[in-house]
Automatic annotation (TrEMBL):
Residues 1-22 form the signal peptide. The keyword Signal applies. The keyword Nuclease does not apply. This is Putative Bug-like extracytoplasmic solute binding receptor, TTT family. Pfam families: TctC. Belongs to the UPF0065 (bug) family. It comes from the Bacteria.
Length: 322
């Protein structure tokens, strides 16, 4: 169904929209499908498979990760909202699917509040600003100077709303001009960056690490205001000449609207235990993301706040609705 902006804003203000369905007597009774909106090899794919193993061990049923990439998460989200609200179909949602798309996709086809049951947050995800190593750029200042010397000639890749908005914010706050090239996912954009068909981009640390190690790509800075434990020498962009710059993506677990309370509570408890485990924290750190657990109530409120925040982010980044 087409989303009604007024309905969503009322939901973001806290008005309940979820349906009430009867809880099943036993959960889970069969394998669980975990739908993600990014392609195999992406950060979301790797953390979903790690969590799938944790959830499977705790729940006693297999967790099958199903990738449905494209359209900033719209394809995956639409697939989940039509599934039975019994806990056997879950969605690894992100800031793209549950906040940014409200302002970036005209015919969204789902309500990120009313069509989903929040279960818990999973990660906070900073991005890296990187350039092709063949470019004469070794710092943020040099990138800005190079772009100003070649107005409109540089291009950058985007594979999700996070990489798009993070780059747009950099452009708006530094005054540089560059052309966006959109991809179905960050791995594809990374391929073109390494090949020299792109000049720079904002990217997940995991995706780009091998190419940094090989010397094909150079890191210029971090989008979050705090450094990553795995990359302590990489400074935030806010310390490198763009005061106040901040961008962080996030991910969380959702079910279809009307998920029974006992199923939500069971999934939330198992998810929180998995996210808070030392093995998960260490694994997420290697992926370049921060383990961030929360309960359904706080996560639902967080999503509503993110919808409001993304109105400002999309406006400040100068993005038009598609």
């Amino acid at each position: 169904m087409a989303i009604q902006r007024r309905t969503l804003l009322l939901a973001a203000a806290g008005m309940p929209l979820a349906r009430s369905w009867a809880a099943p007597s036993s959960f889970p009774s069969r394998p669980i499908r975990l739908v993600i909106s990014f392609p195999p090899g992406s950060t979301s794919d790797m953390l979903a498979r790690h969590l799938g193993e944790k959830l499977s061990s705790a729940l006693g049923q297999p967790v099958v990760v199903e990738s449905k990439p494209g359209a900033q998460g719209v394809i995956a989200a639409r697939a989940v909202i039509h599934a039975a609200a019994d806990g056997h179909t879950l969605f690894l949602g992100t800031n793209s699917s549950h906040a940014a798309n409200v302002y970036l996709i005209r015919n969204l086809g789902y309500d990120p509040i009313g069509d989903f049951s929040p279960i818990g947050q999973i990660t906070t995800n900073p991005l890296l600003l990187v350039v092709n190593a063949d470019r004469p750029v070794n710092s943020l200042g040099e990138l800005v100077s190079y772009a100003r010397a070649h107005p409109g000639q540089l291009n950058y890749g985007t594979g999700n709303s996070g990489s798009l908005v993070a780059a747009q914010l950099l452009k708006s706050q530094t005054g540089i001009q560059a052309q966006a090239v959109n991809y179905p996912g960050m791995p594809q954009a990374t391929t073109d960056l390494v090949a020299g068909r792109l000049d720079f981009m904002m990217v997940d640390p995991l995706v780009i690490q091998p190419f940094v190690a090989s010397g094909q790509v150079r890191i210029l800075g971090l989008t979050s205001p705090q450094r990553l434990d795995a990359m302590p020498k990489v400074a935030p962009l806010s310390e490198l000449g763009v005061p106040g710059y901040r961008y962080e993506s996030w991910s969380g677990l959702f079910g279809p609207a009307g998920l029974p309370a006992d199923v939500t509570e069971k999934l939330s408890a198992v998810l929180a235990a998995a996210v808070n485990s030392n093995t998960t924290k260490a694994y997420f750190s290697r992926l370049g993301v921060i383990a961030t657990a929360s309960d359904p109530q706080h996560f639902g409120q967080f999503v509503r706040e993110q919808i409001v925040l993304w109105r400002t982010l999309s406006r400040d980044a100068g993005l038009a609705v598609n």
